[in-house]
Every structure is written in C-alpha cells, then in structure tokens.
Design a protein that fits this description.
Elements (H helix, E strand, L loop, with lengths): L6 H22 L16 E3 L7 E3 L2 E20 L11 E6 L6 H5 L2 E5 L2 E5 L8 H6 L1 E8 L4 H5 L6 E12 L5 E3 L13 E11 L2
Parallel strand pairs: 7-10
Antiparallel strand pairs: 1-3, 2-3, 3-4, 3-8, 4-7, 5-6, 8-9, 8-10
C-alpha cells in the first residue's frame, strides 16, 4: 500500500513560498519604524575650490563638479543591482537635514524609494511646509570610492551619516552621461545628487 501524504507535507510548498515572499518584500521594502535619533541641523557644504581633474573609474570618466560634505539622517535606503548605474552607484540614500531631520517630521511622512526616485507622502496635513521638505532632503546617488564601498553599504535607514566627496558628472565612451544637481532647491528629473563618496561616518540612532 502506498504511504499516505501527511498534511504538513502538503502544506510545505505553500509555506516555503510564503517565507520566500515575505523575505523578498522585506528586502525591497524596509518596514515602517519610528525614529527617535539625533537630528542633523546644518545644511550640506558645497564649494568649487581646488577641485581635482577628471579621473577614470572602470569604464567611466568621473569629473568632479563641486566638493560636497553632508551630515544628514538617512530617511530611506535603496540598494540597486540590475540597472546600468548599479556598478557605479550600488545604493541611493534619501537624506534629510535641518527641519527634515526632526523626529516629528520624519515620523509624519511615509518615505519610499524606487527606480532611482525618492518619494514622500503624508496622511492628512504635511508636518512642515512642502517647500521645506523639498529643500532639506535629497535622493542621493552614492558612488563609493573602492576603499569605502563596504562601509557605505553598511549604512542603514535612520542612521546619522557624514559623507564627504564630490558631486560629479559621469561619462562613458558610448556617449552615456550622468550629471549631478548642484542645487538643493530643484525638484523633478535631474535634481538628484550624483555623489562620489570618499569618506563615510555613520552611527545608529
């Protein structure tokens, strides 16, 4: 007589699929969490003094446009593997400073990233003026120098980070290019910072 199939064995494929689905959702969507950490009161510092010349990195030429230093709260973090920028910019950090680094504001917004974009929403009323949200936060495409790559990838949402380096233009021999915004006041396409990161400091809240 053939052995009977027990109920646990019948359920195992469905359970395995459920676990995989939950893991995938967690990987691509960080769960909501209230932030109680340290704010970052100062604006980013940007200057064009004493810039180095263009330099090669793998198949790309990287041209520094401005020196850039920012201390900010990581509002969201997105890891990229598949798009054409992934080899250069494996992670985007949505960064907030000034009024966009306070607990009441951060916890009053729903913040997400996808497709190299950063989005924020609120339930009823914005916790601060929407103009202040736009001018005190930025989706930052982070291009780590090789020596800081692992440290940058270790940054998590809600960390307080200090990043140093250059806002850059990236070009490739086939004509492809990627150019950083040089303003904190712009929005929409082309408003993100393309940031060659040379130093990383971060701490958990």
């Amino acid at each position: 007589m053939a052995p009977s199939l027990s109920l646990p064995a019948v359920l195992m494929p469905a359970i395995a699929l459920s676990i995989l689905a939950a893991g995938a959702w967690t990987y691509f969507h960080e769960p909501a969490a209230r932030w109680r950490g340290e704010p970052a009161p100062a604006d980013p510092i940007q200057t064009t003094a004493d810039l180095p010349g263009p330099f090669a990195h793998e198949a790309f030429t990287i041209t520094p446009l401005a020196r850039y230093t920012t201390t900010a709260v990581v509002l969201a973090r997105a890891r990229y593997h598949m798009d054409q920028q992934a080899a250069l910019a494996p992670v985007d950090l949505a960064l907030g400073w000034g009024p966009m680094s306070g607990a009441e504001v951060i916890n009053g917004l729903s913040i997400s990233q996808s497709g190299r974009w950063y989005e924020y929403r609120w339930a009823d009323e914005p916790p601060i003026d929407p103009g202040a949200i736009a001018t005190h936060s930025a989706n930052t495409h982070c291009l780590p120098a090789p020596r800081v790559r692992n440290k940058l990838l270790g940054v998590s949402r809600h960390d307080l980070v200090t990043l140093d380096g250059y806002l850059v233009e990236v070009t490739r021999p086939d004509g492809w290019s990627w150019t950083s915004s040089l303003s904190r006041d712009d929005t929409g396409g082309g408003s993100c910072e393309v940031f060659w990161v040379t130093q990383v400091k971060h701490r958990r809240p």
